[in-house]
Amino acid sequence: MSAEAKEESKKEVQEYYEAQSYVRVGGEVGGLAYFNADHGYLEALLRGFRSGFLKEFELRQLCQCTTLEDVKLTFGDTDYCNVLNGVSKLGPDNITDLCWRKCANEFLFLRDQATGQLATFMDFVTHQYLIKNICFLITGLLNNSDPNSLLERMNPIGVFPGIRSVLTFENTQDGMVELYRTVLIDTPVAPYFEQYFNTEIQADEPYQQLQDVYNEVEIDIISNMLQKLWLEDFYYYTQELGGETAIIMKELLEFEADRRAIEIVINSFSTALNDQFSRDSERKALFAPFGTLYPEGIESFSKVGDMASLATALEPYAVFRTLWQRAQQDGISIQDALYAYEVQLNVLAFQGQSHFAAFYAYIKLKEQEKRNIWWITSCIFQQRDQKDFNRWLKIF
Protein backbone atom coordinates (compact mmCIF):
# COMPACT_ATOMS: atom_id res chain seq x y z
CA MET A 1 0.00 0.00 0.00
CA SER A 2 1.42 3.38 -1.01
CA ALA A 3 2.00 6.21 1.47
CA GLU A 4 -0.89 8.19 -0.02
CA ALA A 5 -3.24 5.22 0.28
CA LYS A 6 -2.20 4.67 3.90
CA GLU A 7 -2.79 8.33 4.70
CA GLU A 8 -6.21 8.23 3.03
CA SER A 9 -7.14 5.06 4.92
CA LYS A 10 -6.01 6.61 8.19
CA LYS A 11 -8.10 9.70 7.46
CA GLU A 12 -11.18 7.59 6.73
CA VAL A 13 -10.77 5.70 10.02
CA GLN A 14 -10.38 8.97 11.92
CA GLU A 15 -13.48 10.47 10.31
CA TYR A 16 -15.45 7.31 11.11
CA TYR A 17 -14.63 7.46 14.82
CA GLU A 18 -15.22 11.20 14.93
CA ALA A 19 -18.64 10.71 13.38
CA GLN A 20 -19.45 7.98 15.89
CA SER A 21 -18.47 10.26 18.79
CA TYR A 22 -21.55 12.48 18.27
CA VAL A 23 -23.77 10.78 20.84
CA ARG A 24 -26.29 12.74 22.87
CA VAL A 25 -26.03 11.89 26.56
CA GLY A 26 -28.61 13.40 28.90
CA GLY A 27 -29.46 13.15 32.59
CA GLU A 28 -28.47 15.24 35.58
CA VAL A 29 -24.84 16.11 36.19
CA GLY A 30 -23.34 14.93 39.47
CA GLY A 31 -22.81 17.51 42.19
CA LEU A 32 -19.72 18.09 44.29
CA ALA A 33 -19.62 14.44 45.35
CA TYR A 34 -19.31 13.02 41.80
CA PHE A 35 -18.50 15.86 39.39
CA ASN A 36 -14.73 15.82 39.92
CA ALA A 37 -14.51 12.09 39.33
CA ASP A 38 -15.95 12.49 35.83
CA HIS A 39 -15.08 16.01 34.75
CA GLY A 40 -12.75 17.56 37.32
CA TYR A 41 -9.60 17.12 35.24
CA LEU A 42 -11.01 18.96 32.24
CA GLU A 43 -12.43 21.73 34.43
CA ALA A 44 -8.94 22.20 35.90
CA LEU A 45 -7.43 22.39 32.40
CA LEU A 46 -10.06 24.92 31.37
CA ARG A 47 -9.22 27.16 34.31
CA GLY A 48 -5.58 26.85 33.30
CA PHE A 49 -6.47 28.01 29.78
CA ARG A 50 -8.31 30.93 31.34
CA SER A 51 -4.96 32.36 32.47
CA GLY A 52 -4.07 32.78 28.77
CA PHE A 53 -6.54 35.62 28.19
CA LEU A 54 -4.91 38.95 27.39
CA LYS A 55 -4.81 41.10 30.52
CA GLU A 56 -5.80 44.75 30.53
CA PHE A 57 -2.19 45.96 30.59
CA GLU A 58 -1.33 43.67 27.66
CA LEU A 59 -4.19 45.12 25.61
CA ARG A 60 -2.93 48.61 26.43
CA GLN A 61 0.54 47.57 25.28
CA LEU A 62 -0.96 46.44 21.98
CA CYS A 63 -2.60 49.84 21.62
CA GLN A 64 0.83 51.47 21.87
CA CYS A 65 2.14 49.55 18.86
CA THR A 66 2.71 51.58 15.70
CA THR A 67 3.15 48.66 13.27
CA LEU A 68 1.94 45.09 13.06
CA GLU A 69 5.54 43.93 13.55
CA ASP A 70 5.35 45.60 16.97
CA VAL A 71 2.25 43.50 17.66
CA LYS A 72 4.27 40.39 16.94
CA LEU A 73 6.90 41.48 19.46
CA THR A 74 4.26 42.38 22.07
CA PHE A 75 2.70 38.94 21.70
CA GLY A 76 6.04 37.50 22.79
CA ASP A 77 5.12 38.12 26.44
CA THR A 78 1.60 36.68 26.15
CA ASP A 79 -0.03 33.30 25.62
CA TYR A 80 0.06 34.06 21.87
CA CYS A 81 3.85 34.15 21.80
CA ASN A 82 4.23 31.48 19.11
CA VAL A 83 1.16 31.97 16.92
CA LEU A 84 2.85 34.43 14.53
CA ASN A 85 6.11 32.53 14.16
CA GLY A 86 7.04 32.14 10.52
CA VAL A 87 4.37 34.59 9.32
CA SER A 88 6.05 37.08 6.98
CA LYS A 89 3.06 39.10 5.80
CA LEU A 90 1.00 40.38 8.71
CA GLY A 91 -2.52 41.80 8.49
CA PRO A 92 -5.43 42.23 10.91
CA ASP A 93 -7.29 39.28 9.41
CA ASN A 94 -4.53 36.69 9.49
CA ILE A 95 -3.34 37.78 12.97
CA THR A 96 -6.88 37.41 14.31
CA ASP A 97 -7.37 34.12 12.48
CA LEU A 98 -4.19 32.58 13.89
CA CYS A 99 -5.08 33.66 17.43
CA TRP A 100 -8.56 32.17 17.04
CA ARG A 101 -7.13 28.90 15.72
CA LYS A 102 -5.07 28.60 18.90
CA CYS A 103 -8.25 28.99 20.93
CA ALA A 104 -10.03 26.46 18.72
CA ASN A 105 -7.24 23.92 19.21
CA GLU A 106 -7.49 24.31 22.99
CA PHE A 107 -11.26 23.91 22.99
CA LEU A 108 -11.20 20.91 20.65
CA PHE A 109 -8.49 19.31 22.79
CA LEU A 110 -10.85 19.53 25.77
CA ARG A 111 -13.70 18.17 23.67
CA ASP A 112 -11.63 15.17 22.59
CA GLN A 113 -11.01 14.27 26.25
CA ALA A 114 -14.61 14.84 27.39
CA THR A 115 -17.07 12.04 28.07
CA GLY A 116 -20.75 11.70 28.93
CA GLN A 117 -22.81 14.83 29.37
CA LEU A 118 -19.79 17.14 29.07
CA ALA A 119 -18.98 15.74 25.62
CA THR A 120 -22.57 16.37 24.51
CA PHE A 121 -22.52 19.86 26.06
CA MET A 122 -19.34 20.78 24.20
CA ASP A 123 -20.75 19.33 20.98
CA PHE A 124 -23.69 21.71 21.38
CA VAL A 125 -21.23 24.60 21.62
CA THR A 126 -19.56 23.54 18.35
CA HIS A 127 -22.89 23.15 16.56
CA GLN A 128 -23.32 26.92 16.41
CA TYR A 129 -20.14 27.20 14.34
CA LEU A 130 -20.98 24.08 12.35
CA ILE A 131 -24.24 25.66 11.15
CA LYS A 132 -22.39 28.81 10.10
CA ASN A 133 -19.77 26.77 8.24
CA ILE A 134 -22.38 24.76 6.34
CA CYS A 135 -24.31 27.87 5.34
CA PHE A 136 -21.05 29.53 4.35
CA LEU A 137 -20.08 26.58 2.13
CA ILE A 138 -23.54 26.36 0.56
CA THR A 139 -23.35 30.07 -0.25
CA GLY A 140 -19.99 29.45 -1.90
CA LEU A 141 -21.47 26.50 -3.77
CA LEU A 142 -24.30 28.64 -5.11
CA ASN A 143 -21.87 31.40 -6.11
CA ASN A 144 -19.37 28.99 -7.72
CA SER A 145 -16.57 30.16 -5.40
CA ASP A 146 -13.14 28.55 -5.18
CA PRO A 147 -13.47 25.49 -2.90
CA ASN A 148 -9.96 25.75 -1.45
CA SER A 149 -10.41 29.37 -0.37
CA LEU A 150 -13.75 28.51 1.25
CA LEU A 151 -12.27 25.64 3.25
CA GLU A 152 -9.44 27.86 4.50
CA ARG A 153 -11.93 30.45 5.75
CA MET A 154 -14.09 28.04 7.74
CA ASN A 155 -14.26 28.33 11.51
CA PRO A 156 -12.10 25.46 12.84
CA ILE A 157 -14.46 24.80 15.75
CA GLY A 158 -17.31 24.04 13.34
CA VAL A 159 -15.61 21.37 11.23
CA PHE A 160 -17.21 17.92 10.95
CA PRO A 161 -16.09 14.70 9.26
CA GLY A 162 -16.68 14.88 5.53
CA ILE A 163 -17.25 18.64 5.39
CA ARG A 164 -15.10 18.87 2.27
CA SER A 165 -17.65 16.78 0.40
CA VAL A 166 -20.15 19.65 0.60
CA LEU A 167 -18.27 21.40 -2.19
CA THR A 168 -18.26 18.39 -4.50
CA PHE A 169 -21.93 18.82 -5.39
CA GLU A 170 -23.10 20.78 -8.39
CA ASN A 171 -25.22 23.91 -8.16
CA THR A 172 -28.24 22.18 -9.67
CA GLN A 173 -31.53 20.88 -8.31
CA ASP A 174 -30.24 17.30 -8.31
CA GLY A 175 -26.98 18.41 -6.72
CA MET A 176 -28.72 20.18 -3.83
CA VAL A 177 -31.00 17.17 -3.29
CA GLU A 178 -28.02 14.81 -3.09
CA LEU A 179 -26.18 17.22 -0.78
CA TYR A 180 -29.06 17.11 1.67
CA ARG A 181 -29.63 13.36 1.42
CA THR A 182 -26.01 12.19 1.63
CA VAL A 183 -24.09 14.83 3.60
CA LEU A 184 -26.27 17.18 5.64
CA ILE A 185 -28.50 14.36 6.85
CA ASP A 186 -25.49 12.74 8.55
CA THR A 187 -24.26 15.84 10.37
CA PRO A 188 -24.96 16.50 14.05
CA VAL A 189 -27.13 19.50 13.05
CA ALA A 190 -29.27 17.50 10.60
CA PRO A 191 -32.39 17.75 12.84
CA TYR A 192 -32.32 21.54 12.53
CA PHE A 193 -32.08 21.42 8.74
CA GLU A 194 -34.86 18.85 8.65
CA GLN A 195 -37.09 20.90 10.93
CA TYR A 196 -36.51 24.04 8.89
CA PHE A 197 -37.05 22.43 5.48
CA ASN A 198 -40.18 20.66 6.70
CA THR A 199 -41.75 24.05 7.30
CA GLU A 200 -40.62 25.46 3.96
CA ILE A 201 -41.17 22.55 1.57
CA GLN A 202 -44.46 20.99 0.44
CA ALA A 203 -45.04 17.40 1.51
CA ASP A 204 -45.70 16.04 -1.99
CA GLU A 205 -42.23 16.88 -3.35
CA PRO A 206 -39.96 17.15 -0.29
CA TYR A 207 -36.57 17.14 -2.02
CA GLN A 208 -37.18 18.67 -5.41
CA GLN A 209 -37.89 22.09 -3.89
CA LEU A 210 -34.63 22.42 -1.93
CA GLN A 211 -32.99 24.44 -4.72
CA ASP A 212 -35.97 26.80 -4.82
CA VAL A 213 -35.74 27.40 -1.07
CA TYR A 214 -32.06 28.36 -1.31
CA ASN A 215 -32.75 30.63 -4.26
CA GLU A 216 -35.80 32.36 -2.81
CA VAL A 217 -34.75 32.72 0.82
CA GLU A 218 -31.67 34.68 1.72
CA ILE A 219 -29.00 32.44 3.21
CA ASP A 220 -28.71 34.77 6.23
CA ILE A 221 -32.35 34.12 7.07
CA ILE A 222 -31.82 30.36 6.77
CA SER A 223 -28.74 30.60 8.97
CA ASN A 224 -30.57 32.65 11.59
CA MET A 225 -33.45 30.18 11.66
CA LEU A 226 -31.07 27.25 12.10
CA GLN A 227 -29.25 29.16 14.86
CA LYS A 228 -32.57 29.73 16.60
CA LEU A 229 -33.42 26.01 16.46
CA TRP A 230 -29.96 25.16 17.81
CA LEU A 231 -30.23 27.69 20.64
CA GLU A 232 -33.64 26.38 21.64
CA ASP A 233 -32.40 22.78 21.67
CA PHE A 234 -29.28 23.74 23.63
CA TYR A 235 -31.36 25.67 26.18
CA TYR A 236 -33.68 22.75 26.91
CA TYR A 237 -30.74 20.34 27.08
CA THR A 238 -28.92 22.44 29.70
CA GLN A 239 -32.08 22.52 31.80
CA GLU A 240 -32.15 18.71 31.75
CA LEU A 241 -28.66 18.67 33.25
CA GLY A 242 -29.88 20.36 36.43
CA GLY A 243 -27.75 21.78 39.24
CA GLU A 244 -25.44 24.78 38.83
CA THR A 245 -25.12 24.10 35.10
CA ALA A 246 -28.85 24.62 34.55
CA ILE A 247 -28.98 27.74 36.74
CA ILE A 248 -26.02 29.52 35.13
CA MET A 249 -26.73 28.43 31.56
CA LYS A 250 -30.33 29.59 31.91
CA GLU A 251 -29.12 33.16 32.45
CA LEU A 252 -26.45 32.98 29.76
CA LEU A 253 -28.66 31.47 27.04
CA GLU A 254 -31.64 33.67 27.85
CA PHE A 255 -29.43 36.72 27.41
CA GLU A 256 -28.09 35.21 24.18
CA ALA A 257 -31.67 34.83 22.94
CA ASP A 258 -32.46 38.44 23.89
CA ARG A 259 -29.28 39.78 22.28
CA ARG A 260 -29.96 37.86 19.07
CA ALA A 261 -33.53 39.19 18.94
CA ILE A 262 -32.36 42.79 19.31
CA GLU A 263 -29.64 42.38 16.68
CA ILE A 264 -32.06 40.70 14.23
CA VAL A 265 -34.46 43.64 14.61
CA ILE A 266 -31.69 46.19 14.05
CA ASN A 267 -30.26 44.34 11.06
CA SER A 268 -33.72 44.07 9.50
CA PHE A 269 -34.36 47.83 9.34
CA SER A 270 -33.04 48.18 5.80
CA THR A 271 -34.50 44.90 4.50
CA ALA A 272 -37.85 43.45 3.51
CA LEU A 273 -38.15 41.90 6.97
CA ASN A 274 -39.01 45.35 8.28
CA ASP A 275 -42.25 45.46 6.30
CA GLN A 276 -45.33 45.47 8.50
CA PHE A 277 -46.45 42.02 7.33
CA SER A 278 -42.96 40.48 7.63
CA ARG A 279 -42.51 41.75 11.20
CA ASP A 280 -45.33 39.49 12.39
CA SER A 281 -44.31 36.50 10.30
CA GLU A 282 -40.80 36.01 8.93
CA ARG A 283 -38.93 38.26 11.40
CA LYS A 284 -40.88 37.04 14.41
CA ALA A 285 -40.14 33.42 13.45
CA LEU A 286 -36.42 34.08 14.00
CA PHE A 287 -36.83 34.85 17.72
CA ALA A 288 -36.24 32.13 20.33
CA PRO A 289 -39.24 31.23 22.56
CA PHE A 290 -37.50 32.08 25.84
CA GLY A 291 -35.57 34.90 27.46
CA THR A 292 -36.28 38.06 29.42
CA LEU A 293 -37.99 39.65 26.41
CA TYR A 294 -40.23 36.64 25.80
CA PRO A 295 -43.16 36.85 25.31
CA GLU A 296 -44.23 40.47 25.87
CA GLY A 297 -41.09 42.10 24.50
CA ILE A 298 -41.04 39.85 21.46
CA GLU A 299 -44.67 40.70 20.76
CA SER A 300 -43.88 44.43 20.99
CA PHE A 301 -41.15 44.02 18.36
CA SER A 302 -43.91 43.74 15.73
CA LYS A 303 -44.34 47.51 16.12
CA VAL A 304 -40.60 48.25 15.90
CA GLY A 305 -39.50 49.78 12.61
CA ASP A 306 -36.62 52.04 13.66
CA MET A 307 -34.18 52.68 16.51
CA ALA A 308 -36.54 55.05 18.34
CA SER A 309 -39.35 52.50 18.49
CA LEU A 310 -36.85 49.81 19.54
CA ALA A 311 -35.78 51.98 22.48
CA THR A 312 -39.44 52.31 23.46
CA ALA A 313 -39.96 48.55 23.28
CA LEU A 314 -36.93 47.92 25.55
CA GLU A 315 -37.89 50.60 28.08
CA PRO A 316 -39.83 48.25 30.45
CA TYR A 317 -36.76 46.00 30.91
CA ALA A 318 -34.27 47.42 33.42
CA VAL A 319 -31.18 45.69 32.03
CA PHE A 320 -31.78 46.74 28.44
CA ARG A 321 -32.94 50.22 29.42
CA THR A 322 -29.68 50.70 31.33
CA LEU A 323 -27.60 49.35 28.45
CA TRP A 324 -29.39 51.63 26.00
CA GLN A 325 -28.73 54.66 28.19
CA ARG A 326 -25.08 53.66 28.60
CA ALA A 327 -24.68 53.31 24.84
CA GLN A 328 -26.11 56.80 24.34
CA GLN A 329 -23.86 58.32 27.02
CA ASP A 330 -20.66 56.60 25.87
CA GLY A 331 -21.32 57.15 22.16
CA ILE A 332 -21.26 53.44 21.28
CA SER A 333 -23.74 51.18 19.54
CA ILE A 334 -26.27 49.14 21.47
CA GLN A 335 -24.58 46.03 20.04
CA ASP A 336 -21.30 47.00 21.73
CA ALA A 337 -23.16 47.62 25.00
CA LEU A 338 -24.73 44.17 24.75
CA TYR A 339 -21.33 42.59 24.15
CA ALA A 340 -19.94 44.35 27.22
CA TYR A 341 -22.76 43.01 29.40
CA GLU A 342 -22.31 39.54 27.90
CA VAL A 343 -18.65 39.62 28.94
CA GLN A 344 -19.68 40.37 32.53
CA LEU A 345 -22.08 37.43 32.59
CA ASN A 346 -19.52 35.01 31.16
CA VAL A 347 -16.81 36.12 33.57
CA LEU A 348 -19.19 35.38 36.45
CA ALA A 349 -19.59 31.83 35.13
CA PHE A 350 -16.01 31.16 36.24
CA GLN A 351 -16.77 32.10 39.85
CA GLY A 352 -18.44 28.79 40.69
CA GLN A 353 -17.21 25.26 40.19
CA SER A 354 -18.45 21.77 39.34
CA HIS A 355 -20.59 22.90 36.41
CA PHE A 356 -20.34 23.04 32.60
CA ALA A 357 -21.18 26.71 32.10
CA ALA A 358 -17.51 27.74 32.23
CA PHE A 359 -16.83 25.73 29.05
CA TYR A 360 -19.46 27.76 27.20
CA ALA A 361 -18.30 31.01 28.81
CA TYR A 362 -14.70 30.32 27.78
CA ILE A 363 -15.50 30.21 24.06
CA LYS A 364 -17.78 33.27 24.29
CA LEU A 365 -15.04 35.26 26.03
CA LYS A 366 -12.54 34.12 23.41
CA GLU A 367 -14.90 35.50 20.77
CA GLN A 368 -14.67 38.88 22.50
CA GLU A 369 -10.89 38.62 22.68
CA LYS A 370 -10.94 37.90 18.95
CA ARG A 371 -12.93 41.10 18.40
CA ASN A 372 -10.48 42.99 20.63
CA ILE A 373 -7.45 41.80 18.66
CA TRP A 374 -9.09 42.48 15.31
CA TRP A 375 -10.10 46.01 16.30
CA ILE A 376 -6.69 46.98 17.71
CA THR A 377 -4.71 45.51 14.81
CA SER A 378 -7.09 47.15 12.31
CA CYS A 379 -6.53 50.53 13.94
CA ILE A 380 -2.77 50.00 13.79
CA PHE A 381 -2.91 48.86 10.16
CA GLN A 382 -5.03 51.87 9.15
CA GLN A 383 -2.90 54.28 11.24
CA ARG A 384 -5.99 55.57 13.01
CA ASP A 385 -5.96 58.16 15.76
CA GLN A 386 -5.13 56.82 19.23
CA LYS A 387 -8.56 57.76 20.58
CA ASP A 388 -10.14 55.23 18.20
CA PHE A 389 -8.31 52.32 19.81
CA ASN A 390 -10.36 52.24 23.02
CA ARG A 391 -13.31 50.18 21.77
CA TRP A 392 -11.84 46.94 23.17
CA LEU A 393 -13.34 45.34 26.27
CA LYS A 394 -11.47 44.15 29.34
CA ILE A 395 -12.15 40.49 30.06
CA PHE A 396 -10.09 39.33 33.06
Strand count, sense and closure of the main sheet? none
Say what oligomer this is: single chain
Secondary structural class? mainly alpha
The shape is globular
How widely separated are the two ends?
A: 52 Å
- Helical residue percent? 55-70%
Number of helices: 18
**Arithmetic mean of pLDDT:** 87
Q: How many beta-strand runs? A: 0
The SSE string, one letter per element, is: HHHHHHHHHHHHHHHHHH
Model regions low in confidence, pLDDT < 50 over at least 5 residues: none
Question: What integer value in Å does the Rg equal?
Answer: 22 Å
Task: Give the strand content.
Answer: under 5%
Describe what you observe in this structure.
This protein is mostly helical and 396 residues long. It is built from 18 helices and no strands.
